[in-house]
Structures are given as structure tokens and as C-alpha cells.
Amino acid sequence: MRGRIILLGPPGAGKGTQAKWLVEKTGLLHLSTGDLLRDEVARGTELGRNAKAFMDRGDLVPDNVIVEMIQGRIADAKGFILDGFPRTVAQAEALARITSVDAVVYISLDREQVINRLTSRRVCRSCGRITNTLSDDSARGGTCRDCGGELYQRDDDRREVIENRFDVYADSTAPLISHYNEAGILHEVDGTRAPEAVLAEILAVVEAE
């Protein structure tokens, strides 16, 4: 099994969902920089305060902050799934100085699909459930179907922020596709397909000898 995996793709491509399913199937450590940074912001740490201004605008958090955070997390890990890192070629080069990578899975999705997915996302204030207005009728009414709590749209899911996030991705992260393709470890998966079909293809990559 390939135990050191990177998931690449634009915001909204489903990297977080796929990573969590992969953890259930493989037992690898899942590291999502988005989740880690939001945790830092919620706890009001110095790193969180520094990162929040960048996150609220949809800009990338500086490389040195992310690299330091990731290095500490993978130090004792036997295997990992990186979700949201690296975001730039510079970060990829920094990662290569810390550890090798077995495979990079690129989940492809175009700009309009990204915007539609993320602007429809809603979060329950009571139980934290994440849903969307595209497939959940109760979400369109602003109510969580699990607990009846109020649903809200995160600041970083507003259209103008999503548009900026995609543009930042296209400028800074998309070059990673060429970088890892040249390294011979890139595997592209169509992110428009059903999540289960995407998972099956990713598993085929991860479980290959």
C-alpha cells in the first residue's frame, strides 16, 4: 500500500470527504490544513490570529506557518493523507525536504462547479452538521434536519470569497499538477462523478503496490 498520500484539487472538490473515507479504509493519518487552521482560529491561538486575516479573504496562509504546523504532525506518523497541503510548488519542495510522497491524487473540478458547491454549503450552529442547499430540502429552509438547529453560511463560503479562493488556487496550486506529473506520481480523478466512484478510483491508487 502507498502510505504517504497527497490529495490535490480546487476548493469544493471533495478532498475532505474522500480523506475521511480513506482513513476508515486504510487507517492512515488525515491532516487537513483547513481543519487545523480553523481549530487554531477557534481556540484563539497566535497562529490562528495570524492566519484568520488571510483565511477571511480567501488568501493563502504564509508557507512558513503551514510547513511548521505540518512538520510537527507527521513527525511520528507511519503514513498520512495530506488534504490542502502543499498548495504551492514552494510548499511541495519544503515537504520533500521533510518526507517523501508515494502518490498524489488530483481530483479535478472546474470553476463554476466549485462556486456552486461551496456557496450552497451550510453548517448547523447546534450540532455542527454540514449540509448543502442543492440536495437537502431542509437546508433551503435554514433548519438542520438532524437537530432542528439554525443553519448558517460560513464567511469563507460566500461567493466573492470562493471566487477569490479559486483564482488563488489556479495561480498558486494548479502548477503542482505539472510538478507532480513530471515526478511521475500524479493520478487524476474526475471530481464530477459520484463520491463513491471517486473513492473507488482513489483506493485503487492507494492500495497499489
How would you describe what is shown here?
The protein has 209 residues and is of the alpha/beta class. The chain has one domain: P-loop containing nucleotide triphosphate hydrolases (Rossmann fold), CATH 3.40.50.300. 51% of the residues lie in helices and 16% in strands. It has ten helices and eight strands. The protein has helices at 15-26, 33-43, 46-57, 63-74, 89-98, 111-119, 137-140, 159-173, 175-183, 195-206, and strands spanning 4-8, 29-32, 80-83, 103-108, 121-124, 130-132, 151-152, 186-190. A five-stranded parallel β-sheet has the order 2-3-1-4-8, sandwiched between helices. Strands 6-5-7 form a three-stranded antiparallel β-sheet. Strand 5 and strand 6 (130-132) form a beta hairpin. The longest helix is centred in the last third of the chain and has 15 residues, at 159-173. It is globular. It starts with a strand and ends with a helix.
